[in-house]
Amino acid sequence: AAGAALVFLAIANELTATLLLAPNGTRTLATGFWALTSEIDYVAAAPYALIMVALSLPLTWLLYSQSKRTAGL
After folding, report:
1. Where does the sequence pass through the membrane (predicted)?
2. What are the domain boundaries of the chain?
């Protein structure tokens, strides 16, 4: 489960690979956030940031709890 969470976090927040490899018209959370912040439309970019944080926090907690269990802490 921890490995899947780690891969998901990397994919959800990876912008450079998406910009280079995705076909035209592909919209992801990262590209939507990047496009709006580059236009200095922070109000419209806020929901994208909130969704990325909301997805990342539970998975980060899962990784942290798994690493504590593995380390025996």
Report:
1. 45-64
2. 2-71
